[in-house]
Amino acid sequence: MLTIFVRSVILYAVSLMAMRTMGKRQVGQLQPFELVVVIMIAELAATPMGGVGIPMLYGVLPMIAVVVCHSVITVLCMKWQSFRVWMCGQPTVLMRNGVICEKQLRRVSIDLNDLMEAIRTGGILDPAEVGTAVLEPGGQINVFPKADYRPVTPHDMEKNVLRDGLPLPLVMDGVLQQDNLIRGQLTEAWLRREAEKAGFRSLAQVLFMCLNTQGQLLIQGKGCTDTHLIQAMEPERAVW
């Protein structure tokens, strides 16, 4: 039993390393050749995991070979567009200007029920509001409303809005995030001063602190049920 447990742990670790080596895309939408790789790795790991008489190398070496093949195909797809089109396919327009492309539906083996499901998944109830629907190479269908039915944007109203970007977490559970401090071109002394203004004598008392692209600093202390939102800098200084 202990042997099976140890073999399972090792093969799990090797499978996890193989997936991480192939990049973050493997946990998202898969291209056809990537789906084949995932299925093969699962099968190669499962066979020696349950069979004690099967050497682990019979599972590990094929997994390494599959990862190498995947890396080669990925490089070829990045270098030659024609090879990528042949390997992954191209987007297919299923609806254009509100009109269903019947021939394209038949070519990709998608019926109207699948299309209606994708439209509802896209947050649209009435097919008459759909302008474009595209089948991506990964298999998902993206649906876009007609211009008359899309939400109004600040650009439509000719309004200027502040830049909206990813906030920088600066303190998490009392630990200073040095990388984000450098990315925001900030100093630890400045951060401690801002924490003291909010009533925290030490960063160790801070549960969470982050700075958004409007220059606002959100602070919550450990054991606190309220937060502090202060204007720590001018929005123009948010340079990350």
Counting H and I runs of at least 4 residues, what is the number of helices?
8
Element string (H = helix, E = strand): HHHHEEHHEEEEHHEEE
Please indicate the count of domains.
3
Structural class: alpha+beta
Radius of gyration: 26 Å
* Main pleated-sheet profile: 5 strands, antiparallel
Q: Kindly state the mean pLDDT as a whole number?
A: 86
The N- to C-terminal Cα distance equals 53 Å
Spatial order of the strands in the main sheet?
Answer: 6-5-7-8-9
Low-confidence stretches: none
Beta content comes to 15-25%
Shape: flat
Count all strands and give the number: 9
- The percent range for helix content is 40-55%
Provide structural commentary:
With about 240 residues, this protein is an alpha+beta fold. The protein has three domains: about 1-85, no CATH class; about 90-150, bsu07140 like domains (CRO Repressor, 2-Layer Sandwich), CATH 3.30.240; about 170-235, CRO Repressor. It is built from eight helices and nine strands. The chain has helices at about 1-20, 30-50, 55-80, 80-90, 100-105, 110-120, 180-185, 190-195; strands spanning about 90-95, 100, 130-135, 140-145, 170, 175, 205-210, 215-220, 230. A five-stranded antiparallel beta sheet has the order 6-5-7-8-9. The radius of gyration is 26 Å and the shape is flat. The model has no long low-confidence stretch (mean pLDDT about 85).
Indicate the topology.
Layout: H1 2-21, H2 32-50, H3 57-79, H4 81-88, E1 92-96, E2 99-100, H5 102-107, H6 112-121, E3 130-135, E4 141-145, E5 168-172, E6 175-176, H7 178-183, H8 188-197, E7 206-211, E8 216-221, E9 228-231
Antiparallel strand pairs: 1-2, 1-3, 3-4, 5-6, 5-7, 7-8, 8-9
